[in-house]
Amino acid sequence: MTIVDLAALRRDIASISEKNAQASQRSAFDFGDEAVDRVFREGMQRGAVHEIFADEAGDAGAATGFVIALALRASADHSPILWLEEDFTALEHGFPYAPGLQSIGFDPQRLVIIRCASSQDVLKAASDCLGIRGTGAVIIAPWSNPKCLDLTASRKLLLTAQQTDVPAFLLRLGAIPGENAAVTRWLIRSAPSQSSGANAPGYPVFDTNLIRNRQGMTGHWTLQWESDHHVFRQLHPVSGAVVSTPAHRSPQTRKSRARPY
């Protein structure tokens, strides 16, 4: 026979009910594009950890821009967005450039950059920042694959984000995917933008590959970030006939001939 402490059981049930109620009240955000939003049941969770990787070293700028765009979608206007990184990261990849931020629709005055001595300090500061209600978003950018960013550390970040409903974006530069508690995981590549006319540059475009989604399906899209309205729009391949390769020669790049002087 098992003796049950009814008072303790009631407390446990009440605690579970409270947690479930909090979970149901968690807010979400979307991309603004129906095809992408369809893979999430009720939008991307705001109080969660989302992980973004650059596919190659040359895609670091694209991954960074994608993270900033997500932070803008997830946060209320004028709320502060905190950026945490190690001291030497600015030497490796530079630091956010104010005119560049403005060009993608982000007010630089909203950005608070926090530089730490080590990756462990980055994660500790990130946990503290996520605990501040009213923060728009926290971008966490430890360099490469630090040992301290393990399953336990990521779960702690996730729990804190869930409690305060503050989104955490793990920006992984110079890193490879590993086991952690991230709700979504993205692989980002650079993509050509579409000119807005007169050979002027167009909106930023990202080749996005959702390779983990604990809320639903995965997917692959080419997304344009319309900075004027803070929405993503899916771009589709250009349809129509393609000029065929001449039969008398192979499809190789024609070598330029030096001009005689």
How much of the sequence lies in strands comes to: 15-25%
CATH architecture: 3-Layer(aba) Sandwich
Helix/strand-derived category reads alpha/beta
- The average pLDDT score comes to 82
Instruction: Write the H/E string, N to C.
Output: HEHEEHEHHEHEHEEEEE
Q: What strand order characterises the main sheet?
A: 5-4-6-7-3-8-9-10-11
Outline the low-pLDDT stretches: 1-6, 16-25, 239-261
- The tally of beta strands, per DSSP, is 11
> Per the principal axes of the C-alpha atoms, what is the gross shape?
globular
From the alpha carbons, calculate the radius of gyration and give it in angstroms. Answer: 22 Å
- Number of folding domains? 1
* Secondary structure: helix percent: 25-40%
Give the helix tally.
7
CATH topology: Rossmann fold
Query: N- to C-terminal separation?
Result: 103 Å
Described by strand count, sense and barrel closure, the largest sheet is: 9 strands, mixed
What is the CATH first-level class name?
Alpha Beta
Query: Mind telling me the CATH superfamily name?
Result: P-loop containing nucleotide triphosphate hydrolases
